[in-house]
């Protein structure tokens, strides 16, 4: 579904991404593991076309080359980004935020049906449809940000640290919802500090260090890799060292 090859990005002299290649299938959850500053946010922004990249990248979505498209046309072709910090319109209601999410042409026709779908994924948003977004809790705002991205009818959803700042119970709820989004056939590319949780729901993952992909494999393979355990899973817990 999403295929990325040779993606590089520099901020001045600092090369934040170097020849990154990855792919995400339909209905697949793929996670990116990486330390602070590894380039995870830059990677999602580069795929979504909101930062300028170095020449030579190849990005395709459903077989269509989207490498040189501007960000709004990338959304039109079926890729939506949920940025870190959520990026919702705080002064607008939940319903108005969702309506704005349906602005791409590909999403306008089925707006009401899709809103119903979003409301069944996130019942709390239905209850709070008339509430001003900034008055909602952090977890509710995160759900709204994801709901709004889903309103664009994406084939691929890029999520940047969706669990940041949420309570453990809210994190569980969020991850359960991401599973249901996947069941609807949407592919998810997930950046998470919470590697434990993201590997629990992911099918596959990539390890990003200093802008370079240094490892990839199934979630089970990564969970049992000693280097991954040391760097991202807080050591080698004997009970979970084997894949599950
Ligand atoms: N606009 C910018 N200008 C200059 N340098 C930047 C800019 N954005 C990011 N960087 C640098 O690029 C590198 C990668 O940043 P990025 O935010 O992509 O990392 P990250 O893996 O998402 O980190 P974190 O987990 O801490 O959010 C870092 O060294 C960062 O300081």
UniProtKB/TrEMBL annotation:
**GO biological process entries:** L-amino acid transport
Write down the SUPFAM superfamilies for this protein, in alphabetical order.
P-loop containing nucleoside triphosphate hydrolases
Gene Ontology molecular function, alphabetical: ATP binding; ATP hydrolysis activity; branched-chain amino acid transmembrane transporter activity
Could you tell me the superkingdom of the organism this chain comes from?
Bacteria
Q: Which Pfam families match?
A: ABC_tran
Database matches in CDD domains: ABC_TM1139_LivF_branched (cd03224)
Q: Where's the ABC transporter domain?
A: 2-235
Keywords, sorted A to Z: Amino-acid transport, ATP-binding, Nucleotide-binding, Transport
- Which family does the similarity line name? Belongs to the ABC transporter superfamily.
Q: What does this protein do?
A: Involved in beta-(1-->2)glucan export. Transmembrane domains (TMD) form a pore in the inner membrane and the ATP-binding domain (NBD) is responsible for energy generation.
Supply the name of the protein: ABC transporter ATP-binding protein
